[in-house]
Amino acid sequence: MAHDDHSGTDIAAASSDAHDPLVSPGTALVVADPFENPGFPPHRPRVTDTNPQREKRAQRTVTVLFYLSILGSVWAIAAYMLFPIETNDMASVRTNNLLIGLGATLALLAVGFGVVHWGKALMADVELVDERHAVGGTEKSRVAAAQIFADANRESGFSRRTMIRRSLFGALIAFPLPAVVLFRGFAPQDKDPVHLLNHTMWKKGTRLTLDPSGAPIKAADVTLGSAVHVIPEGLAEMTEGKLEEKAKAAVLLMRLEPSALNELPERKDWSYSGIVAYSKICTHVGCPVALYEQQTHHLLCPCHQSQFDVANHCEVIFGPAKRPLPQLPITVDDEGYLVAQSDFHEPVGPSFWERSA
């Protein structure tokens, strides 16, 4: 009778899978041998590994690319200064954007191409196996980590190739400078930004008007529980600087039961018959606060969920905002229209360095 050397293995495998619905009864399972490790393919040296002249040429190429990146960053800054944006001149906007964009593009592409060429032509070209190991902070692992940094330094030639290292540092230092300079464009160029941020169009006697129609609002027309978007009288008819002024002067007008307002003694006359007006510009980063919860008297900023309590001088009750919304003092004129008593008594919107209140 023939004897199969694998019968014991087959029987054990079959018995272990006797209850497996995918295996037919009586089927003999054979355990296959594991795949043989094929190893690494034959190593093919690069031309820079065998030709010193080509290695020097690659090093010069990488250095030139890094210096081109520095040149692109400097050009972006120079273009911002030499080709300023003129008011109501779209040609100057296009020229400014084009030239700054070309400089920033050169800065980014050159440093990117330089790093890639450095890695492909000059860094160590050997095949490695990254073995999995237990995660831990033992002394042995720390020594191994230090050795990895040392090997990376040796393989990349970072310490040895001074020309590349210095040009890379220069490119990385110069690259963010255009962005730093461009931030200056966010502030007014011809006027004191501190004064502009401290004052809005509101002044004594300015009527509160509906946004965007500009229709004046009578106190008798503001219903209990309502929230109305308000702008200063005259803003709707402006042709220049309208958006800039609206960004500072936008107001939310709400009417509560007078008994629901917890007003400070010095602000008792800032409201009128339960009608209060607060800046619509969130004190966190300047998003429009536009969601009003009628029952709780809470205002919500949709950007980062800051919440303000209208009944308590719009103090912050939740979220990242750090100070209450500024209140606009209001009253009514002889015709019953709502008017401002003055400008805001503090700067609106997010805080800035020169803000004194």
UniProtKB/TrEMBL annotation:
Family affiliation: Belongs to the Rieske iron-sulfur protein family.
Domain of life: Bacteria
Protein name: Cytochrome bc1 complex Rieske iron-sulfur subunit
Segments passing through the bilayer: 64-83, 98-118, 168-187
Function comment: Iron-sulfur subunit of the cytochrome bc1 complex, an essential component of the respiratory electron transport chain required for ATP synthesis. The bc1 complex catalyzes the oxidation of menaquinol and the reduction of cytochrome c in the respiratory chain. The bc1 complex operates through a Q-cycle mechanism that couples electron transfer to generation of the proton gradient that drives ATP synthesis.
Sequence segments annotated as region (Disordered): 1-20, 34-55
Keywords tagged on the record: 2Fe-2S, Cell membrane, Disulfide bond, Electron transport, Iron, Iron-sulfur, Membrane, Metal-binding, Oxidoreductase, Respiratory chain, Transmembrane, Transmembrane helix, Transport
InterPro entries: QcrA_N, Rieske_2Fe-2S, Rieske_2Fe-2S_sf, Rieske_Fe-S_prot
Cellular localisation: Cell membrane
Natural source organism: Candidatus Lumbricidiphila eiseniae
GO cellular component, one term: plasma membrane
Domain Rieske: 248-339
GO molecular function annotations of the record: 2 iron, 2 sulfur cluster binding; metal ion binding; monooxygenase activity; oxidoreductase activity, acting on paired donors, with incorporation or reduction of molecular oxygen
Main localization, broad class: membrane
Topology within the bilayer: Multi-pass membrane protein
